[in-house]
Amino acid sequence: MERSALSIRAATAGDAERIAHLFTDEGYPAGLSDILDRLARFGSEFSSVHVAEASGEVVGFVAVHIMPRFEHSDRICRVLALVVDPGVRERGVGHQLMEEAEELARNTGCAFIEVTAGHHRSEALRLYEQIGYEPGIATYLRKRL
Known about the structure:
Blueprint: E1 6-10, H1 16-25, H2 32-41, E2 47-54, E3 57-68, E4 75-84, H3 93-107, E5 110-115, H4 122-130
Parallel strand pairs: 4-5
Antiparallel strand pairs: 1-2, 2-3, 3-4
Helix pairs in contact: 1-2
């Protein structure tokens, strides 16, 4: 897929059904109403969802949240979801979505951007490392509430 054949834009409510399908296929079951609620929550300067579109079809999306840091006077950007349709993987869609996330981070004064990828997602890990993300910088601990 040529870069010029792909466009990146802010997600709209009209994209919710396709995003729900992509997210469900990736192992995160979500219905139309779930995604509509999430798009509403992510509709700000500091939380957004962007889609990759090719030939009028959404083929991927990225969701980001930007937050202030307490220990410094800057912000960090967190990629919360990145999903690319399996039929177009390895064609630069994930790279372009991550470039969009990085541009959003730069434009809002972020010092860095971070993403979490499970060890079982080798394709995702490979993508992030190819575009300059460093593994093992921090250890994330989590507690279910």
